[in-house]
Fold this protein.
Amino acid sequence: MKRFAFALVLLALTVSTAWAAPGRDTAAGEARIGVLMRNVTEAFLADYVAHVNRMAAERGVTVNVQNAMNAPDTQLTQLQTLINQGFRYFIIIPVVSELSDQMNQMIHAVGGAAAYSNIAPTTSSLLIGPNFFYASSPELVGGRYQGQLIADFFDANPGRAPGRNVNMLLILGELGHPAQVHRETGLMEGLRDRGYNVNIIARATANWSPDQANELMNAWIASFAGQFNVVAAQNDGMALGAVQSMIHNGMVTPTPVAGIRLTVPVFGIDATAAAIASMRANELYATVLQDSAGQSRVAFDLMYQIATGTFQLGNVAGGISPATTPITEAPVNDARIVRQSYLVPFVPVDRDSEFYRNHP
């Protein structure tokens, strides 16, 4: 594992700071929560921060949001600065999973707590103490739902997948990112469970970026025109980048066919507002809700309960109960930290789904 700012970590573990007893914020009569974000440019992450800010305003909580701009050393420095300012309770979306070990050691040294969303912390970081939590959604399930949505499309339009062959362009997120790994595995499982043969025509990363996905799709259309019958992207931003490329390259019909204007369906994950708008325009075919509101609500409620001294093991947080049995995906595959894990469900979103019908 790469060592991030080792000297800073040693300093963090030895520096003299005011100790905060678990369950009691150091600010007189006021709960304070530090929010450490890997970035705030991705649509899901921006939505997550907006939900946290809204909940903080509703409950009279002071939050300090820090944007690491995808730099591990920056995130460690931001954490140390907040600790020096007296913050003890943290909501964290880490730049990389491995950073959680160092961050939790720093937080544990001052008697604090943290809840992680979106990018899973390591199992070893959660074992540092019972006040460290995973408040997120199992990525494998999100990928399976995407596969099922693709299968639903071809079940309804069998002529588009002769011989039940799915010829896919697959746009990946950041390589090695837990979501990239598990969503891909789940996607393939979801399609194969429904009896489809998956042929990957091309597979490459666009690093969660709409612009990179657009450029990638332009190149693929030039190279593989007529060879693919579906495009799957691991987040909505990249899916919408692919949609715009297809429109630009003339892959559209005068009127919607099979519910879309595009000649080949595109599927995303996240169910952002922009994705729902694209579905209403008959462009993006379907997506999977990764619930930024639900994840942030659980993480915020956990830290609020601890900061106000009301948390007990097994408490419901943000409407979600802790897990009771291990699952196949780390870190919740380890029985020792199952009760520190709060799993917010993914939800498939097509035009018949309740989320789509009720979304403005």
User: Anything to note?
Assistant: The chain is about 40% helix and 20% strand. The chain has two domains: 16-137+292-345, 140-289. Confidence is low (pLDDT under 50) at residues 1-24.
